[in-house]
Write a structure and sequence with these properties.
The structure holds two protein chains of two kinds.
Chain A (H helix, E strand, L loop, with lengths): L4 E3 L2 E4 L5 E6 L6 E8 L3 E9 L2 E5 L6 E5 L5 E5 L8 E8 L8 E2 L3 E5 L1
Parallel strand pairs in A: 2-11
Antiparallel strand pairs in A: 1-3, 3-8, 4-5, 4-9, 5-6, 7-8, 9-10, 9-11
Chain B lengths: L2 E3 L4 E5 L4 E3 L2 E3 L4 E8 L5 E7 L5 E3 L5 E5 L4 E6 L8 E9 L10 E2 L3 E6 L1
Parallel strand pairs in B: 2-12
Antiparallel strand pairs in B: 1-4, 3-9, 5-6, 5-10, 7-8, 8-9, 10-11, 10-12
Classes of the chains: A mainly beta, B mainly beta.
Chain lengths: 113, 117
């Protein structure tokens, strides 16, 4: 069974641009969560999707958004990038809820210059 | 709101020695507790989790953790570490049975376990 796939692996953007990250969950998993990981703040919850609906959202500004498609694949978008958005963005999937075993992808490393 | 504190940012240990990584949490409701491990340049993997039942939880790679409700702790232990255990370890909490656990996991800042030969 293929694991969680995140693309691209690395991204370099400049301030003010926008970016879209993609996540393909494990087949059969319907819950997809997104986390931001930085050395200073650690892992912070962005949002979680289940059956194409955002079920919960962390404490991030509206520049951060996401969506989930009918095949459970998910994308997250960050608009008007700031230097502080530089981070490793991790996607995780589970069968139905994050309280089950979360399977993480290797992440997308975003650098904002 | 819940929070997690991992008191040690780094823990150096000699190979084959025992190790304990500390985790304390705060929450106003019942919780589910997790330990995840992150190897360099990889995503996180679940080591073990506590949802209910026995307070001593055994996980993969010889790790175990004990849930202590009175001390609000969930410390991770291994009796004998190996060089391959070098990694970042994250404790996480979510509020128990909150309509499907959809509040997301709250992670601690992580503890870097350094195994010295």
């Amino acid at each position: 069974k293929a694991g969680v796939t995140q693309t691209p692996r690395y991204l370099i953007k400049t301030r003010g641009q926008q970016v879209t990250l993609s996540c393909s969950p494990i087949s059969g998993h319907r819950s997809v969560s997104w986390y931001q990981q930085t050395p200073g703040q650690g892992l912070q919850f962005l949002f979680e999707y289940f059956s194409e609906t955002q079920r919960n959202k962390g404490n991030f500004p509206g520049r951060f958004s996401g969506r989930q498609f009918s095949n459970s694949r998910s994308e997250m978008n960050v608009s008007t990038l700031e230097l502080g958005d530089s981070a490793l963005y991790l996607c995780a999937s589970s069968l139905a809820t994050p309280n089950e075993k979360l399977f993480f992808g290797s992440g997308t490393q975003l650098s904002v210059l | 709101a819940q929070s997690v504190t991992q008191l040690d940012s780094q823990v150096p240990v000699f190979e084959e020695a025992p190790v304990e990584l500390r985790c304390n949490y705060s929450s106003s409701v019942s919780v589910y507790l997790f330990w995840y491990v992150q190897y360099p340049n990889q995503g996180l993997q679940l080591l073990l989790k506590y949802l209910s039942g026995s307070t001593l939880v055994k996980g993969i790679n010889g790790f175990e953790a004990e849930f202590n409700k009175s001390q609000t702790s969930f410390h991770l232990r291994k009796p004998s570490v190996h060089i391959s255990d070098t990694a970042e370890y994250f404790c996480a909490v979510s509020e128990g049975d909150s309509g499907g656990g959809a509040d997301g996991l709250t992670f601690g800042k992580g503890t870097h376990l350094i195994i010295q030969p």
